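Ex. 9. Protein: Phosphoglycerate mutase.
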Amino acid sequence: MTLRLILTRHAKSSWGDPTAADFDRKLNNRGQQAATDIGQWLAESDYLPQQVLCSTAMRTRQTWERMAQYLPEPEALHLVPELYHAEPAVLLSLLRQAEAPVVALIGHNPGIGEFAQRIVSDPPVHRDFGRYPTGATLIVGFEEDRWKDIVHRSGRTVDFVTPRDLER
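Predicted structure tokens for Phosphoglycerate mutase:
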């Protein structure tokens, strides 16, 4: 496969501070561990992003920071405000602008879960894929040579994991 997408929903965040704006919510302890586990799994599985598109919300940035501890530094890290609660059409548009062959996109539900369902022709057989829980990560392969040629249902599921699958 020529192109590869790593599609991750942010890890579990805290609702502990009722005064915090949604955008500013931080990862809770469980989310911190989950993001770490996802980063380790990506490294062990040789799913190494070369370009990262990450929402500017606190919980997505913290998710990437935890994941990145186990990964080589990507050629490009882009903090993208438009990823905050983006709809699938926005996610596709942003992905079509990517340049590296392996791209990680870190965002939010419901958009990221809906996008995951639309981008693959063969959804993974997994109890949690339909709800795309926090920390869920889908690896998608594409035969296309350029991201601008990607369309819905053009991707093939390579792998899918949730933090629950990685609990040790």
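Check your answer against this statement. The mean pLDDT is 96.
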